[in-house]
Amino acid sequence: MALDPKAVKSDLVLILDYGSQYTHLITRRIRSLNVFSLCISGTSPLSAITDLKPSVVILSGGPHSVHTPDSPTFPDGFLHWAESNGVFVLGICYGLQLIVQRLGGEVCIGHKQEYGRMDVNVQRESALFGAEKVGHSQVVWMSHGDEAVKLPEGFDVVARSQQGAVAAIENPSRKFFGLQYHPEVTHTPEGMDTLRRFLFDVCGVLAGWTMEDVLEEEIKVINNTVGQDDHVICALSGGVDSTVAATLVHKAIGDRLHCIFVDNGLLRYKERERVMETFEKNLHLPVTCVDASNQFLTELKGVTDPEKKRKIIGKEFINIFDAFAQELEQKLGKKPSYLVQGTLYPDVIESCPPPGSGRTHSHTIKSHHNVGGLPKDMKLKLIEPLKLLFKDEVRQLGRILDVPESFLKRHPFPGPGLAVRVLGDVTEGNALEILRQVDEIFIQSIKDAGLYDSIWQAFAVFLPVRSVGVQGDQRTHSHVVALRAVTSQDGMTADWYYFEHKFLDDVSRKICNGVRGVNRVVQDITSKPPSTIEWE
Question: Is the torsion defined by CA of 378, 384, 389, 390 positive or negative?
Answer without folding.
Answer: negative
